[in-house]
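Suppose a colleague, Dr. K., hands you the sequence of a protein chain of 202 amino acids and asks what its three-dimensional shape might be. Before reaching for any lab equipment, you can write down a predicted structure in token form. Begin with the sequence itself:
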Amino acid sequence: MLVNKACERGAVLQTQTTVSGFCMVKGKVTGILTSRGKMDADCVVLACGTGIPALTERISIPVPILSSPAILLRFAVPRRVVKTLISGDDIEVRHARNGDLLAAEDYPANGNVRDTAVSAQIAVRSRLAGAESAVLIKYSVGERPVPRDGYPVLGFADEGIYVASMHPAVTCAATIGRIVSEELRDGQSDEIPQHYRPFRFK
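The predicted structure, expressed as tokens, is then:
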């Protein structure tokens, strides 16, 4: 919904587009190099999770974002059983736009993803009223971005490059999106603690 609203206001969305590097003029970033060619920009916002280090390393700016695997699951349920999201010790679920129930599980130490998926299905069926007949549609492994020191990374890493990355990104997206957009507009934000700033890695 947010992407659609942005496009209605003039934003251009390009999916399936690989970013390979930055365009530089006299040491200043002026855009990005992509699989569709060069794109000019006054400021480049890096909110690409585990893809951030490979890009910032090209201009010798260290932003250590580690990769933490997680199992992503999708269940078919007869009706909506969660209003917003639930995150507990043994269950983490929310609904997709089409009504499917989405869940996430930590990657197992033994590497047995299938057993973890089955255990998650049992938990969903037993813990959520209305999900007793939940059917596991699919599961996959995704890589979660985790800053090396555990704190969010928010702010200008260099002139023209802004970094936004944190572990609970989906949960905090609305708030962080507002804070980042205000900082890009105003040039600074007092809401972002100094120990969240990228310069701490230099």
